[in-house]
Input
Amino acid sequence: MPVIARVVITPKRGILDPQGKAVCSSLHTLGYEEVADVRVGKFLELRLDARNGGRDVAADRVRAMCERLLANGVIEDFHFELVDGDAGTGSAGSAGSEGPPA
Amino acid sequence: MKWGVVTFPGSCDDRDAVHVLRHDLGHEAVALWHKDADLHGVDCVVLPGGFSYGDYLRCGAIARFSPVMRAITEFAAQGGYVLGICNGFQVLCEAGLLPGALVRNRSLRFVCRPVHLRVESVANPFTQLAVPGDVWSIPVKHGEGCYVADAHTLDQLERDGSILLRYCRSDGTRDRHGDVAAADYNPNGSLRDIAGIMNATRNVFGLMPHPEHAADRELGSCELPRCSADGLKIFQSIADWVAETRERASAGSLR
Output
């Protein structure tokens, strides 16, 4: 069954995020004073063939992908969720979240 | 002395480095392709500047897994000398051969200009021809050169004398505001004004400035009225160190 992994990568707390700061001040310029902080990260969507081993194996492998390549643990945190690939990409989170923040 | 200069898809300063090594130093320099698993017996590997693999995902993140990097990691573990310039520095950090990481410049702008660098430490293969406190002028050109690491790592680098170059003013002075520089002499916001670091075993050196662009009068890099060839001192330091090490080894084997 196809599974989609949605991976979110964000700058670690305490790591300078100049992009986030620039976006934050731009939002303030537009009058959105309520914005206290912005962190700019990345969103990746991986389409997986999870026939072998099912979701537990898929989750382990996606975690390894994040640790080895997709995120740099020195500066970034990641979390991900696995959703049913047949359900399309529109039902965020409803298919169950498997990856608590690392 | 035999040098190897790596070319990744997207490298752009590899030829400048080869030119300096052949033309200005008169040494043998071979091109290493990113798919090479063999380093051809070189004494020092140069990872050049550029945008390896388009800087996709993160600068240096994809290059790190290329066949040549597997060979270089092994080479470094055996004590081989590795010099990473700009993108090469980013690759070395991604590969875990140097601590920390390089992130987007604090200004969010690509910076391309000469900077002043203070030589902090000279008991090593890379800056041995300098005197501590020497101020060099070498250009930078990067968008992601802000060096970051946790405070523990930064303290460790200081204690080990592993910070070889820091950004400074033309007279060598710096402001101290904790880890973060407020002054414009620091082109990217690097913590503690760090421009270049080496590893604990003193055979891997990464720096954001481009010594190959300040090594050849024909290529420019002039800061009038003096024509700066400060970058050449890094290449010359390594060459002298390799020669001295070899002499000591052969003297030892004769005994």
